[in-house]
What does this fold into?
Amino acid sequence: MTFKELQKLIHYKQSESNSDQTRFFDRLKDKPFWIWNVEQHKTDDRRTKGDYCFNHIIGLPVKSNTERTLYSYQKIVLHALDKHKHIFIKKNTGLGISELFLRYMAWLALKDKALAGSQMCLVTGPRIDLAITLIDRMKRLFEPKAGIYFDSKETVIELNGCTIEAYPSHHLDAMRGLANVSFILHMNL
It folds into this structure.
């Protein structure tokens, strides 16, 4: 195989992958994050064959190898986010709040084009490895059901024109120059 043929093959595979990603992300447009009404949830599930809310399309959160639905306390957190500019959550570990926020940020970026061109910032404690882990978790949201893999820097993911980047708390100077910040999540883990 010549170098030119190899380049064409790589370009073809990238185009095919981008096309699959675009089709999958198009399924997420205008979908609710979650349907809290149980009866409506069941009805929409039957009507759309599971293609009715963001979390069912990408796959439910998994803990201890078991898929989990969203819980009522998570509804309270999301309601607080809708009503207030700043919220503070003091909690125990293992409640799924980190997962909830990673999914919520991805949904905000993918539900429509409103946040295209903006940046979301995920601020962690002083360890860069935690920032990398959280972005990796967000990237892996799309692997199981969509087979989408991201080939970007380990602290960055781009969804629908919205750049989501993780920053360790001791390097916030990099955030100061951002012009269009749409969401900041500060996690003190």
In short: The first strand starts at residue 62 and ends at 63. The chain is about 45% helix and 15% strand.
